[in-house]
Amino acid sequence: MIYPAGCVVVLYDPKLNQQRFLWSDNNKAITCVAISSNGRYLAAGEVGSLLIQGEANFLKMGNKPAIIVWELGAECSGRPVAQLRGHQFGIAAVAFAPDSKHIVSAGFQQDGFLHLWEWRSGKSIASTKVATKVRNRGRLRFLNCITYALCFRFSG
Questions:
Q1: Residues 70-106: tens digit of each pLDDT
Q2: Element (H or E) spanning 117, and its range?
Q3: CB neighbours of residue 5 within 10 Å
Q4: What share of the chain is helix, strand, coil (3-state, %, to 5)?
Q5: What is residue 56's three-state secondary structure?
Q6: Domains of the chain (ranges, CATH numbers)
Q7: How does residue 142 score in pLDDT terms, banded at 50, 70 and 90?
Q8: Contact, 61 vs 31, CB < 8 A?
Q9: Between the N and C ends of the chain, which has fewer C-beta atoms within 10 Å?
């Protein structure tokens, strides 16, 4: 069982009744997690700053929350193998492509962007602004497509 708990991701093995923890170096709350189809990698999205209305209607910008990727299994050092930055306010959902080479992410409603990542290189290879409301803590999954060019389903 894998779940976020504040700034950590908890890996719980019910057979052994043991927990392992993966920490973000950024000390930001984890909002969502995904495991690659080959079971070797875990991706987690962070929360960033949200819009804050202060004196004189000042809007505080986000602080570039990350999508953090760890390697699982015996090789798991607990240190991230990649950090992807492209969203402004937080990551609502992440998903791995079936080949585990790409990650798709949806930003919080205030961000409104979807990104397709080549996560090993750290590059966003495609992005688009979402035309509909994105619910925070939704779910993404890739659909059967010829290419992965933002061909997925989001449900919240």
A1: 998 776 677 899 999 999 888 988 999 888 999 989 8
A2: strand 113-118
A3: 11
A4: 0, 50, 50
A5: helix
A6: 2-155 (2.130.10.10)
A7: low
A8: no
A9: N
